[in-house]
Amino acid sequence: MTKIYILITLIGTCNISIAQSGRWEKTIGNPDSCCFTGCSVKQLASGSVYFLGSDNTKQYTELFLVKFTPQGDTIWSKNYGLAAQNTFAEYLGNTRSGNLVLVGVTQDPTTSALGYSLTETDTHGTVIWNKTYLNLEQNAAIEYIEQTTDKGFIACGFINQPDNKTNDYLVIKTDSVGTIEWEKNYGFAGNDASHMVHQTADGGYIVGGDSQEEGSANYDNYAIKLRPNGEIEWDLLVGDEYNNGNQATLITSDGDFLFSGEGSNAAGLNFDIVLLKISKDGKLKWCRNIGGSGTEAGFAVTENAAKEYLITGYATTGSIDNTYTVFLAKTDVEGTCLGVKYFEKPDLSIGYDLYPANDGGYFIAGLTGTMLYAIHTFDENYTDTFSTTTITTGIAQPTKQNTTIAVYPNPANNYISIASNLPTNSTYTLYNTLGSSVKKGTNSALGTITIDTSDVPAGIYLLTIFSDTQQVSTPIIIHHE
Fold first, then answer.
1. For residues 348 and 369, is the Cβ–Cβ distance under 8 A?
2. Across the strands, what pairs with 51?
């Protein structure tokens, strides 16, 4: 078994700003060097707050866990890494006993093969157990985990299909120390990737992700309801003629299922937030596009005591210089936007996780520029709103698809490879955190294309691929060894 090691680190730069009583924003890292990113946050009953991210400042990327007081003061930070492998942070779970579970995607630097790492720690960051899974012949990744009623865990992500060209949903059930009890794959002919899974009241599971339309570069939302043993109870594919993706899944207080992500708007150019609700028996109740004049995506969603939905992610609407900005949006129970507020930063900023705080507020975990970005805010003081459009969906019967373009390695050194089935007339542009183009080109052939990044300075970039009908973007970290 591969052993995980931890290292207590000194943080390069810590900046904290207090807005009003109880509200704070904090960045960790050095704005002039590469790089910390944040992906997930939890607050425990004790009040302590934990943010998980990736530390890309060393030869190999490591998990980075930082513990804060409720007021945003740093108590400690620790790194968790694998010998001679990259480990990228994906999600921070917690257990009923008050411990933490760290999910990372591992990458063999020689072969670029992907695997995953599951680690339970106590509240001091001490490792209780670690399980690492890597098959050099078959890429697999876990993006989310939560504890089940039997004290085991349910987790999801993606795994390569046998032809090694496309992915399927991967769902695993483990015991209390991460040993796999069963593993199931689900999907169609195209790319499929699951991003979140929750245990339901009947002991089964709801899985959310996205699926690629067969013969197309577009994606749709794909929901699967599983029985306790992993067998499919029902599934539903929701999409229209444009590109759609799912990032977050929520079991609502009424027992239905809410999915948040992004989708091309009616013009097929910018993205809007896609919010859709499915009944517990697998029927679509409604589907909304929520957005402004720019591009928006919803990466995390939760519900407040008033049965309203809160969403975070990124938006260019409301940004002074059209740079990606973290936002918090609120909708009513039918998905109509009630308000939006922005957390303006000079660099590209994205909110990846949203978690209720013990004081009635909310924590957001993400990145800004080359730094981890931690926010504590409240459900109030909205300064803007997004328009809400009801989507007339084509509810496809399952014979389709998954996720986004596959870009690797990430972090990259001297090159980036893009595996996709985008048309040969599509173009790509690599933007820096100021929104300036640093590299562009044309996809001249189907399959995998390679971008030379040896002359691109280390930092965080946004890779955007354009075709006649869609726009696909993904953050990229460049880290020269």
1. yes
2. 41, 66
Q: Where is pLDDT greater, at 468 or 33?
A: 33
CA 232 to chain centre: 24
Q: State how far the Cα of 40 lies from the Cα of 411, in Å rounded to an integer.
A: 18
Q: Give the residue from 479, 256, 277, 295 showing the smallest Cα distance to 390.
A: 277
Tell me the pLDDT band of 471, cut-offs 50, 70 and 90. low
In the numeric block, which tokens belong to residue 351? 């909110």
Burial call 155-167: b when 16+ CB within 10 Å, e when fewer: bbbbbbbeeeebb
Burial of 235 (0-12, 13-18, 19+ CB in 10 A): middle
CB 361 within 8 A of CB 378: yes
Mean pLDDT score, 14-18: 45
Handedness of CA 348, 353, 356, 358 (dihedral sign): negative
Tell me if the pTM is above 0.90: no
Within 10 angstroms of residue 98's Cβ, the number of other Cβ atoms is 12
The DSSP-derived string for 161-191 is -TTSSSEEEEEEEE-TTS-EEEEEEE--SS-
Place of tokens 């986004």: 404
Q: One-letter amino acid identity for 160?
A: N
How far, in Å, CA of 368 to CA of 374, rounded?
9
Integer Cα distance of 307 and 129 in angstroms: 37
Is there a contact between 228 and 203 (Cβ–Cβ < 8 Å)?
yes
pLDDT digits (tens, 9 = 90+) for 244-281: 788 999 999 999 999 999 887 655 567 899 999 999 99
224 touches 207 (CB < 8 A): yes
Is 39 in contact with 352 (CB distance < 8 Å)? yes
Using the 8-state DSSP alphabet, how is residue 412 labeled? B
User: CB of 41 within 8 A of CB of 23?
Assistant: no
CA distance 152 to 180: 10
Question: Is there a contact between 222 and 282 (Cβ–Cβ < 8 Å)?
Answer: no
Helix segments in 362-478, DSSP class H: none
Between CA 471 and CA 316 the distance in angstroms is 14
Question: How far is it, in rounded angstroms, from Cα 192 to Cα 185?
Answer: 10
Taking CA atoms, 284 is separated from 56, 129, 222, 306, 394, in Å, by 41, 40, 12, 23, 11
